[in-house]
Amino acid sequence: MNETVICAVGNVATPPVYRESAAGPSARFRLAVTSRYWDREKAAWTDGHTNFFTVWANRQLAVNAAASLSVGEPVMVQGRLKVRTDVHDGQSRTSADIDAVAIGHDLSRGTSVFRRTGRPETAAPPARPEPNWEMSGGTSEETAVVAPQRAARREEAATVVT
After folding, report:
1. Residue 29's closest CA among 1, 56, 62?
2. Is the dihedral of CA 61, 62, 67, 70 positive or negative?
3. Can you give the pTM of this predicted structure?
4. How open is the CA angle 68-53-71, to the nearest 5 degrees?
5. What is the pLDDT of residue 114?
């Protein structure tokens, strides 16, 4: 519930790496996000610091991202931010990953053509009869077997009490 959801706008920095596993398809690529600001002294836009994120996509998003993205393309990524710190060869390294929920081309910097993907055909589950959920007595089988047993127990309890 308490996750950091972000929207990062930047450029695809590495080609998407697509993999099929037992858990389903996944893809990852690096996203370069560079801040820009207006420098009044130079009267021009200036690039600031560049942050790199590893973007992870799963299932159909992974398939579509691998087929649609190329290095250098401007994209927007929305997802959960995960920051990790690892120690490797005695040095502490921090990395930031985005578990993507949505990925799309940044249309403020170009055009794109959308093509809907087909869903794989799945067999319909076999039809199951609906259960009888009536509260007034259950099924006729239950009424025929259980009701006389209940009545007999009531009679026994009444004779014990008197």
Report:
1. 56
2. positive
3. 0.67
4. 35
5. 86
